[in-house]
Specification:
Distance between the termini: 24 Å
Strand content: 15-25%
Shape: elongated
Largest sheet: 6 strands, mixed
CATH class of the largest domain: Alpha Beta
CATH superfamily of the largest domain: P-loop containing nucleotide triphosphate hydrolases
Structural class: alpha/beta
Bound molecules: guanosine-5'-diphosphate, magnesium ion, potassium ion
Number of helices: 9
CATH architecture of the largest domain: 3-Layer(aba) Sandwich
Number of domains: 2
Number of strands: 9
């Protein structure tokens, strides 16, 4: 791997049926690494990993954002918002043939709070006239300051290469997070860390805000075919560490038990989870540590 290998996480959001899956299939093709469908609503699923010699793009689905009809709990909105603030790029996909709808407004409102670059992907351009496309572009331009507006046809492949080139250019330098031949049933560090982080946020709502990271230190099979997962929750202050551990370790135990259950469901295997809490002052501001934790803020 060369020094200037690039990598990053890309969230794809948009109403149902706008063509997200079709786009993923087009982009990843044979190389697709679909995560287990067992992962449920509040989680961020890795849709696929695209690895070339120059870069690795990890595409993520953020399910909470696809459900504008339901009244979302604060927590789910928070998870969605956190995810969107941690990825490198956001692709907001719309269906050219349908145009603007209430579901889009919900997403646009959410995006107002996000600082990451957002690309508007107008899909299904094979179904519309050029005039209609111009209309859409002008309409959406007023809604939000998109990094770029890119019309594509995921089904026929029009302009998809261009989109990938644009994204590749903007990716930060970074490690190859996943092996080139990433396969489905392999333990997924990122998803596991998100599952744990979700429990932490859930149980500590006010006290522990965004200032935590979960690092998966090690995953291995032990003699009994149980999967050993060792993870560290990184906080910024020792007071936060205290809260996370709780009275007689009660909080950490609760977080651990619930995380383990979810990880087992995800991987379909018995899991032994070891959780630690570490304090790293001001980690959010330290570039090298952010790197270590797989974040790009
Ligand atoms: P998702 O719900 O956002 O994942 O949407 P899907 O990828 O499942 O696509 C929904 C429907 O739209 C499917 O029938 C696709 O074949 C169709 N579709 C997706 N992309 C395009 C496109 O670029 N052009 C056309 N004409 N149809 C598309
Ligand atoms: Mg889909
Ligand atoms: K933004």
């Amino acid at each position: 791997m060369t020094n200037n290998f690039k990598s990053g996480f890309i969230a794809i959001i948009g109403r149902p049926n706008v063509g997200k899956s079709t786009f993923m299939n087009r982009v990843i093709g044979q190389k697709i690494a679909i995560m287990s469908d067992k992962a449920q609503t509040t989680r961020n699923k890795i849709q696929g990993v695209l690895t070339t010699k120059e870069y690795q793009m990890i595409f993520i689905d953020t399910p909470g954002i696809h459900k504008p009809k339901h009244r979302l709990g604060d927590f789910m909105v928070q998870v969605a918002e956190n995810t969107l603030n941690e990825v490198d790029h956001i692709l907001f996909m719309i269906n050219a043939d349908e145009g603007y709808g209430r579901g889009d407004q919900y997403i646009i409102d959410l995006l107002q709070k996000i600082k990451q670059p957002v690309y508007l992907i107008i899909n299904k351009i094979d179904k519309i006239q050029p005039e209609k496309l111009m209309q859409l572009i002008n309409q959406y331009k007023d809604f939000y300051e998109f990094e770029e507006i890119i019309p594509i046809s995921a089904l026929e492949g029009n302009n998809v290469d261009h989109l990938l080139e644009v994204l590749a250019k903007q990716l930060p330098e970074g490690p190859q997070y996943y092996p080139e031949d990433q396969i489905t049933d392999h333990p997924e560090r990122f998803v596991i860390s998100e599952l744990i982080r979700e429990k932490v946020l859930h149980h500590t709502k006010e006290e522990i805000p965004h200032s935590i990271a979960v690092v998966i230190e090690n995953i291995e099979k032990n003699e009994n075919d149980k999967l050993l997962v060792q993870a560290t929750i990184v906080t910024e202050r020792s007071s936060q560490k205290g809260i996370l551990i709780g009275k007689q370790g009660g909080m950490l135990k609760k977080i651990g038990q619930q995380s383990r259950r979810d990880i087992e469901a995800l991987l379909g295997s018995k899991v032994y989870l070891e959780l630690w809490v570490k304090v790293k002052k001001d980690w959010r501001n330290k570039q090298n540590q952010l790197h270590e934790y797989g974040f790009r803020l």
